[in-house]
């Protein structure tokens, strides 16, 4: 996104207190945008604000799986140019079927499908007609693991939602980034104490020779916010993972 295009924009980033969302907040602030980071954990939001230290930054506590909280959020923050969600609750979801707790599966659906649906429902009315909504799906929809059936299915469902919303909400643009393996705190829930070993093994497989960093995904989301001719698109940023 060109500096001139983002300098005066207002961006809501759900999941902006860590990982990919935090990297996007940092990038957007540096370009001159006003940024609102949102999430469930007030303490994490305040830590992120302390790290970013910008007068153009504010934080809002919200659980996007609760419709009333989402409606209230948009009632409070006013007009926006872009909405982004990198939020996902996958704790307990990476299990083989005999060990899978349905409540863990439901949390994935609520955070990665119903949450984005609610953000679009209540966010679209406050968006600029030239604005955008960007979500994050993931490589699991294309290269699922034996323990990843729930995440694979939800990512695929979210991508279908993106295409439908791009038609319904036009001219507002709706897109998703599909990250590959990215070194973020979410890997604690996927690999536990084998995180470094698991990521290192994948890095050796990928054509680019490394796993992703949050900044790689922030760069891709910035493109989707700024490119006025891109909608209903899934942007794959996965180091060639679909090829191997």
Automatic annotation (TrEMBL):
Q: Which residues cross the membrane?
A: none
- Which keywords does the record carry? Oxidoreductase
Query: Pfam families from the entry?
Result: adh_short_C2
InterPro entries given for it?
NAD(P)-bd_dom_sf, SDR_DHRS6-like, SDR_fam
Highest taxon of the lineage:
Bacteria
SUPFAM superfamilies in UniProt: NAD(P)-binding Rossmann-fold domains
The text of the family note is:
Belongs to the short-chain dehydrogenases/reductases (SDR) family.
Q: What is this protein called?
A: SDR family oxidoreductase
Q: Which organism is it from?
A: Rhizobium mayense
């Amino acid at each position: 996104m060109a500096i001139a295009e983002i300098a005066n924009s207002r961006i809501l980033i759900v999941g902006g207190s860590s990982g990919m969302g935090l990297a996007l907040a940092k990038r957007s602030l540096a370009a001159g945008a006003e940024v609102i980071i949102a999430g469930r954990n007030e303490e994490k939001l305040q830590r992120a604000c302390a790290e970013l230290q910008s007068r153009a930054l504010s934080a809002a506590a919200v659980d996007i799986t609760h419709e009333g909280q989402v409606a209230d959020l948009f009632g409070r923050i006013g007009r926006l140019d872009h909405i982004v969600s990198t939020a996902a609750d996958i704790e307990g979801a990476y299990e083989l079927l005999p060990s899978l707790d349905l409540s863990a599966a439901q949390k994935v659906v609520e955070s990665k499908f119903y949450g984005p649906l609610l953000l679009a429902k209540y966010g679209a009315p406050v968006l600029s007609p030239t604005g955008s909504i960007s979500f994050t799906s993931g490589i699991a929809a294309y290269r699922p693991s034996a323990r990843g059936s729930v995440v694979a299915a939800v990512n695929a469902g979210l991508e279908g939602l993106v295409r439908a919303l791009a038609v319904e909400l036009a001219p507002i643009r709706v897109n998703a980034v599909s990250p590959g393996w990215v070194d973020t705190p979410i890997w604690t829930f996927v690999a536990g104490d084998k995180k470094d070993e698991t990521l290192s093994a994948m890095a050796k497989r990928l054509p680019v020779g490394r796993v992703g960093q949050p900044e790689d995904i922030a760069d891709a989301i910035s493109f989707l916010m700024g490119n006025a001719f891109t909608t209903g698109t899934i942007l794959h940023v996965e180091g060639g993972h679909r090829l191997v």
